[in-house]
Amino acid sequence: MKRITDVHIHIQPWRQLKPAVQEAMRKGKEDHWEILISLMDDPRALLEVMDKSGVWRVGLVNYPSPDIMGFDDSTNTFAAKYAQTNPERLLPYGGVHARFTRDPQGDVDRLIDLGIRLLKVHPRSKYGNPLELDDVAIDFPDLQLIMAHGGRPLYMEEAFFILRRHGQVRLDVSGIPPSKLLEYFPRLTEIVDRVLWGTDWPSPGVKDLRQNIDQFLTLPLTNEQQRAILETNALALFPAES
Question: How do the domains of the chain map onto residue ranges?
Answer without folding.
Answer: 5-237
